[in-house]
Write a structure and sequence with these properties.
By secondary structure, the protein is mainly alpha-helical. It is built from 5 helices and no strands.
Length: about 120
């Protein structure tokens, strides 16, 4: 019984590590424009402190009017919806990304961003 429990816990840990790895790998698409470091804006705004922040408010970044007016407070649900289809959530946003259609990669990316943007 103990071996089954240990094996089960190891499998769960491996699955979590796999999701984190997939999230980090998926984020590689984002690094051309976004940084995880505070104040390091590029083509896109820095993502440090993303969760709980209001869209369009990163200091020193010039956002589109639609993004600034969106009123979105970033949480896991809004972030997933935006990353799935940015133009659907914020029409006319400047973000030149068509969205993630792979649900596993999307879920992993959101999970990665929850921890990586703290």
């Amino acid at each position: 019984m103990r071996n089954l429990l240990t094996t089960g816990l190891l499998c769960l840990a491996a699955a979590g590590a796999g999701a984190q790895d997939l999230g980090k790998k998926t984020f590689e698409q984002c690094v051309a424009c976004h940084s995880l470091q505070a104040g390091e804006n590029g083509v896109g705004p820095a993502l440090h402190g993303l969760l709980g922040s209001t869209a369009g408010t990163v200091e020193g970044f010039r956002f589109s009017g639609p993004m600034k007016r969106s009123g979105i407070v970033w949480d896991e649900k809004n972030l997933a919806e935006f990353l799935r289809n940015p133009q659907a959530l914020v029409p006319n946003t400047r973000m030149p990304f068509s969205g993630l259609t792979d649900e596993a990669a999307l879920k992993a990316l959101v999970g990665y961003l929850v921890t990586a943007t703290k």
